[in-house]
Design brief:
Elements lengths: L12 H13 L4 H9 L7 H20 L9 E10 L2 E10 L6
Antiparallel strand pairs: 1-2
């Protein structure tokens, strides 16, 4: 028996979740996802993947939010100079507001 979130879907939950993971993790299009899934022998249309994303992404985000690192949304840039092989180079790094020292 399927979990209630995936009832009345024509595809198994593993296919849906794999498409969600790939879409949310990598900068790819729906048509590229169709190609990737078709290489595994599964025929699906790009509009179906679009509907999966629209339907499941909010629940997916709620479940992974607990694992995400807290961020204030504000970043600061720290600039320093270091010597590399006898030449001075500028080193930039982004610091989250929570972790920066005042």
């Amino acid at each position: 028996m399927r979990p209630k979130e995936f009832r009345y879907r024509h595809f198994i939950p593993e296919v849906i979740l794999q498409c969600l993971r790939w879409y949310l993790r990598y900068p790819i299009s729906y048509r590229q996802l169709v190609e990737m899934v078709s290489e595994r022998g599964i025929i699906v249309d790009h509009t179906t993947i679009f509907r999966w994303i629209q339907h499941y992404v909010s629940e997916f985000e709620k479940r992974i939010r607990w694992y995400a690192r807290p961020s204030s949304g504000s970043l600061r840039v720290d600039e320093t100079y270091i010597k590399i092989k006898g030449k001075w180079k500028c080193l930039y790094r982004a610091l989250d507001k929570i972790w920066s020292y005042h």
